[in-house]
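SEVERITY: medium
COMPONENT: batch folding queue
REPORTER: lab tech (J.R.)

DESCRIPTION
The queue accepted two submissions in a row. Attaching both inputs and their returned structure tokens so the on-call engineer can compare them side by side.

ATTACHMENT 1
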Amino acid sequence: MGLEIDWIDEIGSTHLWLCDAVKSGEITPPYAVSAERQTGGIGSRGNRWDGKAGNLFLSFCLDIDTLPSDLPRQSMSIYFSYLMKETLAELGSEVWLKWPNDFYIADKKAGGTITAVLRHDIVICSLGLNLVEAPPEYATIDIKVDKKDLLEAFFLKIKRHFFWKDIFIKYKVEFFLSTRYQYFDTAAQKKLHLKDAVLQNDGSILIENRKVYSLR
């Protein structure tokens, strides 16, 4: 996988920029863009994900047919998040994934992942990580790491083409850490506890007889 990475100083949102560039035909997969700082980033549940210089703001696109044949589309965010989590862990971090795809250090969020599928055949994945600085209610990744070295190792993992079933076996163990938490379920309009959820093979949870794929 010959993945071109563009390194830029500042952007509103790497995710929105790449989505627009793919839709217009300006960019074709495989491709990645990383910004030194981001001023209008998109986080989970409609939140902003902005940050200072030095943090990771990454978006990349791939043809879906280059991904493992057993990877469900609804599982892509977890898949890429877990590969990044493993990359960081191999560098000495104690980061873990809170369901479904938020990076945590201890009990504070340090980053997250979103994905989108365009034209039914291109996946766009965006990751944000607090590598050097975070607001008080968030965490910074617990190791010092060069962004270029981190992304080189991360994309090498993607290139290794790990099957979803092999990633999911490890993710199931990780899910136990999430069962300490509650979340506000917009469909039920109440707080639900993840200890009452059953993780499904596609990364969703079954809770109160409903399948839930994200906290958005």
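ATTACHMENT 2
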Amino acid sequence: MNDTAQSIIQVRDLEARYGDDPILKGVNLDIYKGEILAIIGGSGCGKTTLLRHLVGLRPPHAGSIAIDGIDIANGDEKSFEKALRKIGILFQGGALFGSMTIAENVALPIQENTDLPSAAVAALVRMKLCAVDLGGYEEHLPSEISGGMIKRAALARALALNPEILFLDEPTAGLDPVISAEIEELILRINHSIGTTMVIITHALSIIFRVAHRIVMLDKSAKGIVAQGDPNELKTKSPNPVVRQFFNRQANVSKRQLWQP
């Protein structure tokens, strides 16, 4: 990012542990307003752990995390709740309530966090569903729509309160290449149209190179960040062999998979 970019999330000296086992140590990271940041790395490197800390699901063992200047790790409950209103989360499996219609799922955060009348809530729900190309599916249950549609419905719910920051956990996992490309296009469209900051946990090569403005790579052995920047430059120019190996290994695997029956 350029020198004038404004940081909306600041992570300082973050240490994360499960029991006595350190997963991340000394992580320092700035996430900038309006950018699409992909957090990548091999299995067990701490991607999901970092996400859980960024959204306040786990407190850090040490260090601080600030969302738009609000310290969610060391502040009081009122400040924490204020920070949470600035974020939306798309969980990997969608996490829709199976007994509720798509419209009811999207309406839930609006009903819980506002005093809007039912007609206004319904109008907002229709607007959010249309934004993810699901207009007309309001009364369907999650079991009645495809996996890609579930992802889009979950995205509509994550956007229900117009968050400044959207966290997406493996948004294309389990989807075929065509549907994955549609989700990627939707992510780009939302970012371009309303400027939502997006933090994506992913291993998908297409998101890394087509969607992300910047990547942060974690490494299990280093227990932290080993590279960050433009993925196209890091793939060929990183001085770290671990970084180059990750990108080349991912590319080779993707090419082999294209030829599997």
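NOTES FROM REPORTER
The mean pLDDT is 89.
No errors were logged for either attachment.
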